[in-house]
UniProtKB/TrEMBL annotation:
Ligand binding (Zn(2+) 2): D99, E134, H387
Protein's name in the database: Allantoate amidohydrolase
Lineage of source species: Bacteria, Pseudomonadati, Pseudomonadota, Alphaproteobacteria, Hyphomicrobiales
UniProt source species: Agrobacterium albertimagni AOL15
A molecular function (GO) term: hydrolase activity, acting on carbon-nitrogen (but not peptide) bonds, in linear amidines
TM helices/strands, residue ranges: none
Pfam families reported in the protein's UniProt record: M20_dimer, Peptidase_M20
Length: 415
């Protein structure tokens, strides 16, 4: 670190917390969290607030054809590739105030602190808001960063539909955030993502900082089961073609497969759609997505194969049709060693307790890691709870991770 920095190199935690609380007012949930789903009017309002704050801090905006927002602070060497700091402003329907939002606003806070400390960097700094990280409204998760990284086709992404049949492409145009930059044209010197852990480890181990070395891999398997619509009252049990029963047995089987792959494997179902979804009609169609994850490549692929084979057996035994489509996938990710070391060094220089951790949740960094050196920083969250309106962190935790972010980014952006 040069004279420009030293021990006063910390962020303004109060300003970061105020931004978080201000952003949380947009798309409020019904229980203290947020419902600011991607490409809704609430998402558009949050984007405008972020844009205003960034422009007030002297950043210039670029938006690409997936609606990804790139807010640039110039470096002293215009030819140097930028250091990116990113995450997402969209939330789950019953999301918390910090998932994703912390990483975007902490990136802005790091830049505002550079301004306050009159720090210049060789590499430009770009604070990024990725579109549709959650995958709640349009599957898969991390959709726009996946297109940016060249692993998801943009036309496929534009055609993705929400539960009401609206497409990603139409909704992006409707809210006025279809940008003109060619997605993926930007090149990165490095990418940092700061995120709440969304799990119980850091709090249980009483650590302030998670030095994220890896992220577990994921499959989202969308099953479409075909039964026969029939009266729930007058149809004898032996004459039923019961897609709902098949789904229940598949869910139980997924639990058993995940438990058979311990330690370190998870599996479950978060979304089910019965058609016609009427109390006294046996479902003709049942659509649901199985979410399986593990840091082990071998286990990940074995779990997928086992679940698909057993699901076909369950459906055959009930005479139910079974189709499955992988609607989300990434292999286990190893983050960039040099950047991971810069995060650990920053935590040590600041005297913050820290530990290595593997991310349980998926993040945009999983895709940027395909195209640039990438890593993550984590802070604890209360009870490890996330994707729940009661998601909570402390201002101290939020600030400590942002201090680490500032120092690791400056180390990489070359003061
Ligand atoms: O699904 C995930 O891991 C992330 O929250 N989108
Ligand atoms: Mn997130
Ligand atoms: Mn999330
Ligand atoms: Mn794979």
């Amino acid at each position: 670190m040069t004279a420009q920095t030293g021990t006063n190199l910390r962020v303004n935690g109060d300003r970061l917390w105020d931004m978080l609380m201000e952003m949380a007012k947009i798309g409020p949930g019904i229980a203290g969290g947020n419902n600011r789903q991607t490409l809704t009017d609430e998402d558009a309002e949050g984007r405008r607030l972020f844009q205003r704050w960034c422009e007030d801090a002297g950043l210039t905006m670029g938006v690409d054809t997936m609606g990804n927002m790139f807010m640039t602070r110039a470096g002293t060497d215009p030819d140097a590739l930028p250091v990116y700091i990113g995450s997402h402003l969209d939330t789950q329907p019953t999301g918390g105030k910090y998932d994703g939002v912390l990483g975007v606003l902490a990136g802005l806070e790091a830049v505002r602190s550079m301004n306050d400390l009159n720090i210049t960097t060789k590499h430009p700094i770009v604070v990024t808001n990725w579109t549709n990280e959650e995958g709640a409204r349009f599957a898969p998760a991390m959709l726009a960063s996946g297109v940016f990284a060249g692993v998801i086709d943009q036309d496929y992404a534009y055609g993705r539909k929400d539960m009401d049949g609206k497409t990603f492409g139409d909704e992006l145009k409707r809210i006025g955030w279809l940008g003109d930059e060619v997605v993926g044209a930007r090149k990165m010197h490095a990418y940092f993502e700061y995120h709440i852990e969304q799990g119980p480890i850091l709090e249980a181990e009483n650590k302030q900082i998670g030095v994220v070395t890896h992220c577990q891999g994921l499959w989202w398997l969308e099953f479409t089961l075909s039964g026969r619509e029939a009266h729930t009252g007058s149809t004898p049990m032996n004459l039923r073609v019961n897609a709902g029963l098949a789904m229940a047995r598949i869910m139980e089987m997924v639990q058993e497969v995940a438990m058979s792959e311990q330690p370190g494997a998870v599996g479950g179902v978060g979304q089910v759609k019965f058609s016609p979804n009427s109390r006294n009609v046996l479902p003709g169609t049942v659509v649901f997505t199985v979410d399986i994850r593990t840091p082990s490549q071998e286990k990940l692929d074995r779990m997928r194969a086992t679940i698909e084979a057993k699901a076909n057996e369950i459906c055959a035994a009930l005479g139910v049709g079974c189709a499955v489509e992988a609607v989300g996938h990434f292999d286990p990710v190893t983050f960039d060693e040099k950047l991971v070391a810069s995060v650990r060094k920053a935590a040590e220089d600041l005297g913050y307790s820290h530990m290595n951790i593997i991310s349980g949740a998926g993040h945009d960094a999983c895709w940027t890691a395909k195209v640039a050196p990438s890593t993550m920083i984590m802070c604890p969250c209360v009870g490890g709870l996330s994707h729940n309106e009661a998601e909570e962190i402390s201002q101290e935790w939020a600030t400590a991770g942002c201090d680490v972010l500032l120092r690791a980014v400056l180390e990489t952006a070359e003061i």
